[in-house]
Amino acid sequence: VHPNVSQGCQGGCATCSDYNGCLSCKPRLFFVLERIGMKQIGVCLSSCPSGYYGTRYPDINKCAKCKADCDTCFTRNFCTKCKSGFYLYSGKCLEKCPDGLEANNHTMECTSIVHCETSEWSPWSPCMKKGKTCGFKRGNEVRVKEIIQHPSAKGNPCPATTESRKCIVQRKRCQKEGKGKKNREDKRKKSNKDESKETRQESKGRAARRQNREQRENNNKTQPKKRKAPNKEQDLAPVDAAH
């Protein structure tokens, strides 16, 4: 039947011919016919190519074709990947997904429709105006909710996640200096700086007062010596008059 059958074949063939290629394969390899123009050549592969699935028999392992719309398949009736333009669903390739499902153009599968899910509303925020909570009577307060599950293409869209309403509060003045750790630290640094400045000024003042005091003491020490001669002449004046 097969002219020129040979036992010394290449490429995993157990038997082969010059005209038909592989006629049988070595153990665990799959036999598949490849078309080259008008001619079919037998080849032996470790796994079946795209569009084929493998079947094992006692005498030979073969690669059989998948259905026309299948790119890869597990068996002829169970597809694992579809060709372009088809969506995979339960092993079948469909042009349109069944009701209740939607086509996923990323995975090319029919998937369940996913609706949006959100958390409960948060408590209302403090009444504010222009980012402040003081210095006004009428302001606004807001509340928010988080998105837990984003919807799929056909799923119900998410509602607004922020609400705002007007509010009225008792007017109070805004403090000039803000509260908080940073402001306390800045205030303490400023106080220490002022104290250091006052200390330097006091030190300069004490030095100046000490210098003035020392100068006055020096002046007092020299003044009695200058007044000593006139006092002696005054004491002698009555004596000269008596003579």
From TrEMBL:
Sequence ranges of Basic and acidic residues compositional bias: 175-219
UniProt GO cellular component terms: extracellular region
Sorted UniProt keywords: Disulfide bond, Glycoprotein, Heparin-binding, Repeat, Secreted, Sensory transduction, Signal, Wnt signaling pathway
GO biological process, one term: positive regulation of non-canonical Wnt signaling pathway
UniProt region (Disordered), positions on chain: 172-243
GO molecular function: heparin binding; signaling receptor binding
Domain R-spondin Fu-CRD: 11-110
Domain called Spondin-like TSP1: residue spans: 116-170
Subcellular location: Secreted
Function description: Activator of the canonical Wnt signaling pathway by acting as a ligand for LGR4-6 receptors, which acts as a key regulator of angiogenesis. Upon binding to LGR4-6 (LGR4, LGR5 or LGR6), LGR4-6 associate with phosphorylated LRP6 and frizzled receptors that are activated by extracellular Wnt receptors, triggering the canonical Wnt signaling pathway to increase expression of target genes. Also regulates the canonical Wnt/beta-catenin-dependent pathway and non-canonical Wnt signaling by acting as an inhibitor of ZNRF3, an important regulator of the Wnt signaling pathway.
Assembly: Interacts with the extracellular domain of FZD8 and LRP6. It however does not form a ternary complex with FZD8 and LRP6. Interacts with WNT1. Binds heparin. Interacts with LGR4, LGR5 and LGR6.
Family stated for the protein in its record: Belongs to the R-spondin family.
Protein name: R-spondin-3
Upper classification of the organism: Eukaryota, Metazoa, Chordata, Craniata, Vertebrata
Gene this chain is encoded by: Rspo3
